[in-house]
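Hi all, posting the design record for the shared folder.

TITLE: backbone redesign
STEP: 1 of 1
STRUCTURE INPUT:
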C-alpha cells in the first residue's frame, strides 16, 4: 500500500530538489526513497524507474520555464518583451542549473506530454516574435537565433566559463541588445 501523501507530483518534486541540492551526486532512486522515508519499490507506483523520474523532472522543468517566460512577457512587446524574456530565461537557468539542461532538448515526437510542455515555451517565444511581424519560417529562424544567443550565454555562464574582468551583466545586456537590433532588422524570407 502506498504511503499516505505520496503522489507522483511529490516524488518528482523531491527528486527535483535532490537533483538541485546535490549537483555533484548522481540522482538515484535509493537516495530519493530514503529522503521520502519509503523503500525503492514504493517509487515504482509513481514513476517508471529512474528514466521515468528524469522524464517527470524534465516535463516539470519545461513547464516551469515556460511559465516564467510567459509571466515575464505579459503586457510587454518587442524590445521590452525580448529583454524580459531573456532576463527570465537567464534567471530561471541560474536558479535551476541542474534542470536547465533538461529544458533545451527537442521534444520526443512520440511523447505527447513532452510535445505539450515544449510547445508552451515555444508559444511564448512566437508571441514575442509576432511583435516584429515574424511568422512562419521567419519565426522559426528568429527563434533559433534568439535561443542560440541566450542559451549560449547562459550555458557558458552556468558552466563558469566567464572569468574575464569585464562586467558580466553589461556583456549580457549587450548580447540581448544585439539580439533586439537583429530582430528589428530581420530579413524577411
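Okay, here is what came back for every position:
SEQUENCE:
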Amino acid at each position: 500500500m502506498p504511503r499516505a501523501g505520496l503522489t507522483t507530483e511529490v516524488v518528482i518534486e523531491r527528486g527535483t530538489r535532490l537533483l538541485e541540492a546535490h549537483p555533484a551526486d548522481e540522482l538515484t532512486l535509493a537516495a530519493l526513497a530514503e529522503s521520502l522515508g519509503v523503500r525503492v519499490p514504493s517509487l515504482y507506483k509513481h514513476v517508471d524507474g529512474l528514466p521515468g523520474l528524469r522524464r517527470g523532472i524534465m516535463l516539470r522543468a519545461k513547464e516551469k520555464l515556460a511559465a516564467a517566460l510567459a509571466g515575464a512577457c505579459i503586457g510587454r512587446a518587442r524590445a521590452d518583451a525580448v529583454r524580459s524574456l531573456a532576463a527570465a530565461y537567464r534567471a530561471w537557468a541560474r536558479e535551476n542549473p541542474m534542470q536547465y539542461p533538461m529544458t533545451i532538448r527537442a521534444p520526443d515526437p512520440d511523447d505527447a506530454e513532452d510535445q505539450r510542455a515544449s510547445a508552451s515555451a515555444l508559444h511564448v517565444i512566437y508571441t514575442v516574435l509576432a511583435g516584429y511581424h515574424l511568422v512562419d519560417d521567419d519565426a522559426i529562424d528568429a527563434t533559433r537565433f534568439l535561443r542560440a544567443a541566450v542559451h549560449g550565454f547562459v550555458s557558458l555562464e552556468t558552466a563558469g566559463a566567464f572569468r574575464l574582468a569585464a562586467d558580466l551583466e553589461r556583456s549580457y545586456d549587450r548580447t540581448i541588445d544585439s539580439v533586439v537590433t537583429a530582430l528589428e532588422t530581420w530579413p524577411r524570407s
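COMMENT: The longest helix spans residues 49-73.
Let me know if anyone wants the other runs.
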